[in-house]
């Protein structure tokens, strides 16, 4: 566009200068023939009056002709100078306009650069804010988990204390019942002996029958008491066995959960260590990206607790948003399985497995690739 304007600016003065020269030449051509008859007439006159014209008059006419020629030449040179001046002025104006356009373009580029710089600073500030918010959320989750664990331990302690108190109260009741039974037996025995002595005194004839009856009753009472004691002992042992089995089952479940958690943590640590070594040794960005994606998938699968009763055909796709540091800033379901519990377990698995700090070891191109990506979850894919 600048070159086009420059041609228009120089062309017009040039055409004017050429036109002016042509006009001067045409005027000169037209003027010379008009004066030739005068010269002829003058020559006739001179021929007639040759004796009256002097050399001085001829010199004056020649001087006048030279003056007219010099004037024409001066006019032509003035016209050419004026055309050159106009062309120079046009050229300077074109150069000034080009310089102004360049200055405006430079100013526009600088403004765009400043805008991009401002956007970059704002993006970095936003990323820093999100990272701080993610860290605060993580700390809040840790505090909530610690508080929940403390509350669970307190409730467990209260349950154990209540269980011990119930056992102590049951033992005390059993002891009191046993003591009352023994006292009742002793009193009954004393009463029987007293009655027996009186009866023996009164009825010596019926002593054998009374003795036989007493023995039978004593045996029956002893048998009944033995059966009662055996039943009570059996119930006590059954209750003790049930309580012991419940405690063993609770302890077994707790140890199993602890062992599973320890194995999961150990597997995750081993997996992360292996993937870190793989990333460190990667030669190309694509290899590092594949290694990082495998690391994320394996870490999430290790932390995934599939809800009981989930169908094997369920499938959910989760979108992850990460910072360049590997911090998780967002996780949402983009393709639901149709089972709310299954979808929640997928999100919880990603939250437990994050952050993925190995992302900082990736090349910049691979980092931008994993700032946002999807993971698919199917129970059958978990190894």
UniProtKB/TrEMBL annotation:
One of its GO terms (molecular function) is toxin transmembrane transporter activity. One of its GO terms (cellular component) is membrane. The keyword Transmembrane helix applies. GO terms for biological process: bacteriocin transport. Residues 64-262 are annotated as: Disordered. Keywords: Membrane, Transmembrane, Transmembrane helix. It is a single-pass membrane protein. Residues 106-257 have a biased composition (Basic and acidic residues). The chain crosses the membrane at residues 12-32. InterPro entries: Tol-Pal_TolA, TonB/TolA_C. The keyword Transmembrane applies. It is found in: Membrane. Residues 80-105 have a biased composition (Low complexity). This is Protein TolA. It comes from Halomonas salipaludis.
